[in-house]
Design brief:
- This protein is an alpha/beta fold and 245 residues long.
- The mean pLDDT is 96.
- It contains 10 helices and 8 strands.
- It has a single domain, classed as Alpha-Beta Barrel (TIM Barrel), CATH 3.20.20.
- It is globular.
- It has an 8-stranded parallel barrel with strand order 1-2-3-4-5-6-7-8, surrounded by 4 helices.
């Protein structure tokens, strides 16, 4: 299993910012881990054209292959321009667009049928964490969001506590250990021994200064990084920490 350093640019970046991807590729010409950048949809095609060893993905896809869905993008279209990953179920999609586990399930299945690797995001809110419901919430999201088409080759699970995304807050190492152990056990129960190789990422205020400690946690196979992936100088230390883990 190759570990994965994934960057989610969210709604940030214009053509001029693709130099950051070029800089990452230049400083990591033969990485020992997989590196992924998911830029806005407007930048996917030009990013693919100059990404070198860096994989390019999308931040969302529609469940349908095509049709009258103004403003949406299908997994088939994402694959057609050379991307190989797509994020599904990010908390900002769940919150801002009201996406349900069932919708995320269908989007992820569409990604699989198109030949994309899906990064399925799960995570609890601060109220759910404080009420002791974290594992129940994660179990429900895993059951509802992960389709039966998931394999170690086409699926990555990203645990992103909602309250840690972009806040600077971060769970304790014991909390990260508990949740990742739970996720591993849950996917193994459903998918069997192949789930041992399914990559589990941590996301939420990951940066160069805390990456090594997070990557030392068992069952953490990389990170889904937000703001710190926008600049090569910030993402680079995270990549190096993962390579050294």
């Amino acid at each position: 299993m190759r570990k994965l350093a994934a960057g989610n640019w969210k709604m940030n970046g214009v053509l001029a910012d693709l130099t950051e991807i070029a800089n990452i590729a230049q400083t990591h010409p033969e990485p020992s881990v997989d590196i992924l950048i998911c830029p806005p949809a407007t930048l996917i095609a030009p990013a693919v054209a100059m990404s070198g060893p860096i994989a390019i993905g999308a931040q969302d896809c529609h469940a349908a292959d095509q049709g009258a869905h103004t403003g949406d993008i299908s997994a088939k279209q994402i694959c057609d321009v050379g991307a190989c990953y797509v994020i599904t179920g990010h908390s900002e999609r769940r919150q801002d667009h009201g996406e349900t586990d069932a919708q995320i399930h269908d989007k992820t299945r569409a990604a699989h049928y198109a030949g994309l690797i899906a990064i399925i995001c799960i995570g609890e809110t601060l109220d759910e964490r404080n009420s002791g419901a974290t594992l129940d919430v994660l179990g429900k999201q895993l059951a509802g969001s992960v389709p039966s088409t998931a394999t170690a080759q086409n699926t990555v699970i990203a645990y992103e506590p909602v309250w840690a995304i972009g806040t600077g807050l971060i769970p304790t190492i014991d909390q990260i250990t508990e949740t990742h152990d739970f996720i591993r056990a849950t996917v193994q129960q459903r998918f069997g021994s192949q789930a041992i190789e399914m990559r589990l990422l941590y996301g939420g205020s990951v940066k160069g200064s805390n990456a090594a400690e997070i990557f030392a946690v068992p069952n953490v196979d990389g990170a889904l990084v937000g703001g710190a992936s926008l600049k090569a100088q910030d993402f680079g230390p995270i990549i190096r920490a993962l390579e050294n883990a």
